């Protein structure tokens, strides 16, 4: 194989790896960068972003990228660098720097700028570090100038806020520290170290001291150049472009949905943007500064007297996501160009050298063209790791559930049997989207009368009937549509069936279950089980993952059920969280902080008398589901119900209050298993009877789910 083939293979592998890596990072915005409670509100807001204002932000970002690259090049030139990169090369480096700067806390990602210049374009290390250090110090000066402008505008308006005064003092402090450190302390400190360790023979110390001397000389060259006002002016322009762009992005997010926020004074919004940037610069562990940036902005808005802090948090999160999206798309594209462009540039105005890693690679190929060089192995390994990272993010995003509501479907009248009523007095409740979004429906067993119980525009699901049949508790989403895979963005509502009166009993909660006629349990924040008195709303902790139990701290729970007699909690969780080594889902019984894995399945629940367990398990014969019954002490398993025919994928088993009936949903197979989007039908089965006698309650192609049944005694 010739050298050209090796170079092409390396460039191809690195380009593919970089592209996959960037795509994976973009997906991670929605898998781990956005919390479960925020995601349902974020997605509609992102969709309604003003395209024109977003385009204007993008234009300012490109201009800002050029100006920042020019300032970096100017600082490198003033330092005396002989291998001065071209503007095209500086644009590449600056765009990649913008992408990686927030990957690590305290802006450690800035070091990527040093590596790209030094290893990529041969710029001396001391000049890379000096230009980076000076750019940070100059940014502090520019920030100081902008804060001064805000304070002056407030003073002219008649009142200066305490936040602006505090920000002014902080800006002055940062400028003084940065400038004194670089141009007063360092010039004294370097000669002091030189005199103290001039006789040292340790190679590491000698190299470090020489780098410090070169760094100081580079700084002093810039300082003596007499171009201070010029670089300060460019720095102020960079800040103005940046905050102007972010302000346009803020308007793009708020214009259509929150006009009251869009109408806020410019200086207030800019102040909040500065607060977010300062918070993101703190040494707080956070990937891409998610959470930290938003907290800093919200804190400033709070100090400025903005009331809708919850809304502001979502808005700033959207601003953060959109800005990161641009930085990673642009930066990823430039990184691909940087990797791909390995030939020496020939230009009359281009004095740059060929990237050092390319020279080393070329040397390896020239020396041994018949042997696989180390560069190919590294490039292929990087491409493989990026592919795995992307595959993981795709899988993670698929577990977030559908981002849009399913079609409402239509009624099936031709297949309705003549004897679909049950010879018993009672009713079944379930959630259905047949009216356009998921509402709660009630089906009378005696006469098959169906009526809609709720009409709220937001998704409602998981209805549970009180033991005396008087009340319902159910989950209501924070938004019009929330996937049931999200266990946080819900509130639990109590509804009196006779009057239709509603009352919220718990926020950020779902999976309500009755303990008795006066108490329920809820799953709050995805990992906390609480007991609530429905009259007083007094709460008490039942279980919290990682607190006095074997679960990992913060591990998510699903469908918890508390037994007030045995004081045991059963729940579904990831296999890894409950100690099982196989399968994806598992169930466990928790007793006094210790738990034991029960079975590879889900939706473990107590019988009405609290003496038996039943759950959904895989059917080994046809790959669909069945219901099994479990003896709590011995964990002996027996099949409770396994349908045959058209509907064989059973879910949501719920026993009636008298223990005589089981209500459940079923779909047509494993490929139609998604709980809140697929066509499920509701069935009622009398315990102990032939499975073929299970009565089909619903006949609709929409999604019917999470049924419960009440039988009058």
Describe the structure.
- The protein is an alpha+beta fold and 713 residues long.
- It contains 16 helices and 24 strands.
- It has helices at 3-31, 39-47, 51-78, 87-100, 111-121, 125-157, 162-196, 203-223, 228-254, 259-262, 266-280, 292-303, 309-340, 356-367, 374-398, 575-578, and strands at residues 426-432, 439-444, 450-452, 460-465, 471-477, 490-496, 502-507, 509-514, 519-524, 528-533, 539-544, 558-563, 568-574, 585-591, 594-597, 601-606, 613-618, 625-630, 637-641, 649-655, 661-667, 681-686, 695-696, 704-711.
- It has a 4-stranded antiparallel sheet, with no helix packed on it.
- β12 and β13 (568-574) form a beta hairpin.
- The longest helix is centred in the N-terminal third of the chain and has 35 residues, at 162-196.
- The protein starts with a helix and ends with a strand.
Residue share in helices?
Answer: 40-55%
- Poorly predicted ranges (pLDDT <50, ≥5 residues)? 343-371
Q: Got a strand count?
A: 24
Helix count from the secondary structure assignment: 16
Q: Largest sheet, if any?
A: 4 strands, antiparallel
**In what order do the strands lie side by side in the largest sheet?**
3-2-1-24
- Percent strand: 15-25%
Q: What integer value in Å does the Rg equal?
A: 32 Å
Counting helices, strands and paired strands, the structural category is alpha+beta
Shape type: elongated
Mean pLDDT: 85
Kindly, what is the distance between the CA atoms of the first and last residues, rounded to a whole number of angstroms? 84 Å
């Amino acid at each position: 194989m010739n050298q050209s083939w090796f170079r092409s293979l390396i460039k191809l592998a690195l380009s593919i790896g970089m592209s996959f890596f960037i795509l994976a990072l973009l997906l991670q915005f929605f898998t781990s960068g956005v919390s479960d409670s925020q995601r349902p509100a974020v997605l509609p807001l992102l969709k309604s972003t003003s395209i024109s204002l977003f385009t204007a932000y993008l234009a300012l970002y490109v201009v800002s990228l050029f100006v920042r690259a020019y300032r970096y090049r100017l600082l490198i030139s003033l330092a005396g660098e002989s291998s001065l990169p071209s503007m095209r090369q500086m644009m590449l480096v600056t765009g990649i720097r913008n992408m990686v700067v927030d990957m690590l806390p305290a802006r450690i990602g800035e070091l990527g700028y040093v590596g790209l210049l030094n290893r990529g374009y041969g710029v001396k290390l001391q000049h890379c570090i000096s230009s980076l250090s000076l750019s940070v110090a100059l940014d502090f000066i520019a920030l100081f100038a902008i804060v001064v402008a805000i304070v002056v505008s407030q003073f002219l308006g008649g009142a200066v806020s305490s936040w602006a005064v505090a920000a002014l003092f902080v800006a002055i402090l940062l400028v003084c520290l940065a400038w004194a450190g670089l141009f007063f302390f360092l010039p004294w400190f370097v000669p002091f170290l030189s005199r103290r360790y001039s006789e040292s023979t340790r190679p590491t110390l000698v190299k470090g001291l020489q780098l410090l001397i070169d760094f100081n000389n580079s700084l002093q060259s810039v300082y003596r150049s007499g171009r201070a006002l010029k670089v300060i002016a460019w720095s102020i322009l960079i800040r103005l472009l940046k905050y102007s762009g972010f302000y346009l992005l803020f308007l793009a997010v708020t214009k259509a949905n929150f006009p009251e926020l869009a109408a806020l004074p410019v200086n207030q919004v800019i102040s909040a943007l500065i607060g977010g940037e300062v918070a993101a610069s703190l040494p707080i562990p956070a990937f891409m500064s998610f959470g930290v940036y938003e907290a800093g902005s919200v804190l400033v808005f709070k100090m400025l007297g903005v009331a809708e802090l919850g809304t502001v948090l979502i808005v700033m999160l959207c601003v953060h996501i959109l800005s990161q999206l641009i930085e990673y798309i642009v930066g990823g594209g430039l990184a691909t160009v940087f990797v791909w462009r390995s030939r020496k540039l020939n230009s009359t105005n281009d004095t740059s050298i060929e990237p050092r890693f390319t020279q080393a690679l070329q040397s390896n190929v020239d020396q041994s063209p018949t042997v696989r060089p180390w560069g190919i192995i590294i490039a292929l390994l990087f491409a493989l790791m990026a592919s795995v990272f992307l595959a993981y993010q795709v899988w993670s995003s698929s577990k977030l559930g559908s981002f849009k509501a399913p079609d409402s479907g239509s009624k099936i009248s031709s297949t309705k049997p003549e004897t679909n009523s049950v010879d018993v007095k009672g009713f079944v409740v379930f959630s259905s989207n047949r009216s356009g979004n998921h509402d709660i429906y009630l089906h009378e067993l005696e006469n098959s009368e169906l009526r809609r119980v709720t009409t709220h525009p937001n998704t409602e699901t998981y209805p549970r009937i009180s033991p005396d049949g008087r009340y319902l508790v159910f989950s209501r989403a924070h938004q019009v549509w929330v996937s049931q895979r999200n266990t946080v963005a819900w509130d639990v509502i109590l509804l009196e069936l006779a009057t239709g009166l509603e009352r919220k009993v718990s926020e950020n909660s779902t999976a309500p279950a009755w303990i008795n006629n006066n108490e329920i349990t809820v799953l709050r924040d995805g990992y906390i089980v609480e007991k609530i008195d429905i009259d007083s709303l007094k709460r008490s902790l039942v279980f919290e993952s990682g607190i006095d139990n074997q679960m990992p701290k913060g591990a998510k729970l699903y469908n918890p059920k508390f037994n007030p007699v045995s004081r045991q909690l059963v729940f579904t969780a990831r296999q890894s969280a409950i100690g099982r080594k196989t399968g994806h889902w598992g169930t466990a019984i928790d007793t006094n902080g210790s738990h034991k894995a029960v079975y590879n399945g889900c939706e473990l629940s107590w019988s009405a008398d609290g003496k038996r367990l039943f759950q959904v398990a895989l059917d080994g014969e046809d790959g669909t589901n069945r219901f099994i019954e479990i003896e709590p002490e011995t964990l002996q398993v027996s099949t409770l119900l396994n349908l045959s025919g058209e509907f064989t994928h059973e879910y949501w088993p719920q026993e009636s209050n008298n223990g005589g009936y089981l209500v459940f949903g079923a779909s047509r197979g494993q490929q139609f298993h998604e709980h809140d989007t697929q066509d499920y039908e509701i069935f009622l089965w009398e315990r102990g009877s032939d499975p073929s006698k299970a009565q089909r309650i619903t006949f609709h192609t929409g999604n019917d789910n999470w049924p419960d049944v009440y039988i009058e005694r």
